[in-house]
Design a protein that fits this description.
Distance between the termini: 44 Å
Structural class: alpha+beta
Order of helices and strands: HHHEEEEH
Strand content: 25-35%
Largest sheet: 4 strands, antiparallel
Strand order of the largest sheet: 1-2-3-4
Shape: flat
């Protein structure tokens, strides 16, 4: 039986799972370095998927995509054991297109306070 979980539901195990999969594919020792590079390259998608709350901040005026509407959305969540707050650039279909900023926190309380103050 195959079981699927969204990243948000399993966010504390994301890196461990990613490393394990990459080690199967590329060999022991390469998994952790490749996982970090993959997370850096796809950071906006991982953070968007790991969010536990979101709040619309306003429209985002993209300079190179005039006929494409984007929004700024504040998000708070937990990824690999660390709480974060970020401002994501998101399209009308709910797809992340980038980040305007990200901060990490040691506790949920600190992250939620920062999330409430994000504008």
């Amino acid at each position: 039986m195959t079981m699927f979980q969204p990243i948000g539901a399993a966010s504390d195990r994301v890196i461990a799972t990613l490393v394990a999969g990459l080690e199967i594919e590329f060999g022991r020792g390469a998994g952790e370095a490749l996982a970090q590079r993959f997370l850096e390259a796809e950071e906006s998608d991982f953070l968007w998927d790991a969010r536990v709350s979101e709040r619309w901040l306003g429209a985002y005026q993209a300079q190179d995509e005039e006929d494409f509407e984007l929004d700024r959305v504040a998000i708070v969540g937990r990824l690999d054991g660390r709480w974060f707050v970020a401002v994501s650039i998101v399209d009308g279909d709910g797809n992340a297109h980038g980040l305007m900023g990200r901060r990490s926190f040691r506790s949920e309380r600190q992250a939620r306070e920062a999330f409430a103050a994000t504008h």
